[in-house]
Amino acid sequence: MKIIIEKINSGHEHSVSKKDIKKVIEIVPDDWIGVAHIFLISSQLFQNSGWDRPVVQNNTTFKILSRGIDRNIIIKELLIELAIRPSKNYPTYGHSLNKNQRKKLEELIKPYYDKFLEGNTIPNTI
Fold first, then answer.
1. How much is the pLDDT for 114?
2. Residue 42 scores a pLDDT above 50
3. Residue 62's beta-bridge partner residues?
4. What are the helix (H) ranges across 9-96?
5. Above 80 in pLDDT, residue 75?
């Protein structure tokens, strides 16, 4: 498993760090991760991506578009993306989740999200 951070030349910084990703990996069940995953903290801006969510999985790579978005939102979106395969709540079209899928996934990840927040008392700065 790899965590890669793409370099940014200007503009918004990444709102998540390798440490944040490692913590998420530590708190979720092993079957949510698998063995061949790459976590790419992308230099791409979410608004330029064409996706409706800032974290998406393509094959073995989780692409994280965190620039200019609150860290806790990105962590929540990463947890949702990690939970899709084990919960079998696959997006019906592209990477889009319908309201029912999203609600089920948010309920599923809540204990992990809360656990992540427990250990993060440092205010988020973007």
1. 95
2. yes
3. 39, 57
4. 18-27, 71-87
5. yes
